[in-house]
Design brief:
Length: 201
């Protein structure tokens, strides 16, 4: 597979990965579901989905995206211009595009959490496939909707999503993201285990 496609795919979702990780790191506080339960008597979402996580994750992911927009413009005007890295439409249109990517990723995770509770899985329980891809799918769906809205409303002449995201980019992300997610969790668990052992010793 063309290395350029792989670079483009991961460049596209760096803000998404950062938003997803930041929501975990900087989360906490009031849960989005306000401790409410569904008719099955299980929580709507759980304590892991918080307003602070949603807002901070979106903000930090978008901030990273702003930097990537500038960097992408510099790369595209250099000897590496053949990479055709996205600038997310540049300022100011990168604001709605990055908002849809970052908030969309976290909303995808929230929606997945709702259905996860419905099948009886608790916070921390693995739901293979869904846990690894929910935020990527959310980012793709919401950025497609935002790009279409901007195009149909006449704000931009073309659809950013169709201009930027190909089926190959999507396949790369769907295949690679679970591997990255599982590997990161494994390393994190090993670090925690080693820390506990060291502390006990």
């Amino acid at each position: 597979m063309d290395t350029t496609l792989i670079i483009q795919a991961f460049w596209l979702v760096i803000p998404v990965y950062i938003a997803n990780a930041s929501a975990v790191i900087f989360g906490g506080g009031a849960p989005i579901d306000f401790h409410k339960t569904y008719r099955d008597e299980h929580r709507l979402l759980g304590d892991g989905k918080t307003w602070r996580g949603l807002i901070s994750g979106t903000f930090i992911g978008m901030t990273a995206g702003f930097g990537l927009s500038v960097a992408g413009s510099l790369v595209n005007n250099s000897d590496y211009g053949y990479l055709h890295l996205t600038t997310y439409l540049g300022f100011p249109l990168m604001i709605p595009i990055l908002l849809s990517l970052c908030a969309g990723a976290l909303l995808g995770d929230i929606i997945e959490s709702f259905f996860k509770r419905r099948i009886g899985k608790k916070r921390g329980d693995d739901w293979f496939g869904f846990d690894q891809l929910d935020f990527i799918v959310g980012a793709l769906i919401f950025s497609f909707l935002m790009s279409t809205l901007l195009n149909v409303s006449g704000i931009v002449a073309t659809n950013w999503f169709f201009d930027t995201v190909s089926i190959w980019h999507i396949l790369i992300l769907i295949i690679a993201t679970p591997i990255i997610h599982i590997t990161a969790n494994f390393i994190n668990n090993r670090i925690k285990t080693t820390h506990v052992k060291t502390y006990k010793t």
